[in-house]
Amino acid sequence: MDEIKWGLIWPLLALQVLLAVIGLVSLGKAEQTRGPKWLWVIILIFGNLLGSVAYFTVGRKDN
Amino acid sequence: MRNIWTLYHKEMLESLRSYKLIWVPVVFIILGIMQPLTTYYMPEILKASGNVPPGMLEGYEMPGSAVVMAQALGQYGTIGMLILVLGVMNSLAGERSSGTIEMLLAKPVAPAAIVSAKWAAQLTVLVMALGLGAAGAAYYTEQLMGPVSWSNLAAAAGLYGLWLLCAVSLTLLFSAWLRGPAAAFLGLLAAAAMSLAHSLLPSLLDWMPAALTAISAEMMTEGDGMAWGPIFSAVVLIVICVASASLFIHRKQLPE
To answer: Whole-prediction pTM value?
Structure first.
């Protein structure tokens, strides 16, 4: 193990950020969510992978 | 046939609007590339977490690239399956409760066309997510561990995808009949029951679709081990699911 390979780590971080951004955009457009919106904002920003998955699977109301 | 295409188009447009076509593949890519990364940095992660007994890390041996790839595909069997099943649970249940199905059936649209279009849309998302995820995992594994056999990977991912498709098809069937969350629960339960039955009696039940995960791992690590029984039974199961879902919609057995 030499140094940390940032070339391989930053795409992972970028994808996490992308996921959170898509979630936030979707949240902004949504009329209704299960549970308060501000809570989903926190979950999307700090919840990493599982937070975003939770929002997309159970947070949204299908219309 | 033209109806199916039109309905499929509508389904795909909807999954694009709901960002499903983007977020599911992105999650699969993250899951895929995290496996080789965490395996590679495991000693560092353990060290950073503290409380590592001295000498424990000396025995750490980096697993081979094929093993890491098999593990990466295994990720799709747990979290990946959960995501796919939760994504399909409302596909028929939602349209039943909103009354879209009745409107569609009032027109000369066959129930089988509605169900097939939905199924094909789910298949598209699954193929995209699994393909991109496996490719991402393979790239990372090549960078960190060593060369990956891409032909073995294609076969292994195909077998794994067929197993995931079984779970998705089961959930679609339950979705034609129950409410969304109940459909997801039963879909996951059925898949888990099949896996459990297969792991308890592997020699007796090696023809079951659940055997696909084992064959897939063997395909990845050994390069062979192809068995047609599970593939055949998986295809039969999927056809039964789509056909019965169409039948349920046709009879409009609406519980609500």
So the answer is: 0.90
**CA atoms of B175 and B89, how far apart (whole Å):** 6
pLDDT tens track for A33-55: 888 888 999 999 988 888 999 99
E strands present in B126-196: none
Quote the mean pLDDT of chain B: 88
Q: What is the number of other CB atoms lying within 10 angstroms of the CB of residue B132?
A: 16
Of all residues in chain B, the percent with pLDDT exceeding 90 is: 53
What chain A residue is nearest to B42 in terms of C-alpha separation?
A: A1
Q: How many CB pairs under 8 A join A and B?
A: 54
Contact status of B112 with chain A (Cβ, < 8 Å):
no
Nearest CB to A18; choose among B26, B87, B94 = B26
Q: Which run of H or of E encompasses B195?
A: helix B180-200
* Contact criterion met (CB < 8 Å) for A52 and B44: no
Interface ipTM above 0.95? no
CB contact under 8 A, B86 and A57: yes
Chain B, nearest residue to A6 by Cα:
B37
pLDDT in tens, A16-29: 999 999 999 999 88
Interatomic CA distance for residues B204 and B226, integer angstroms: 17
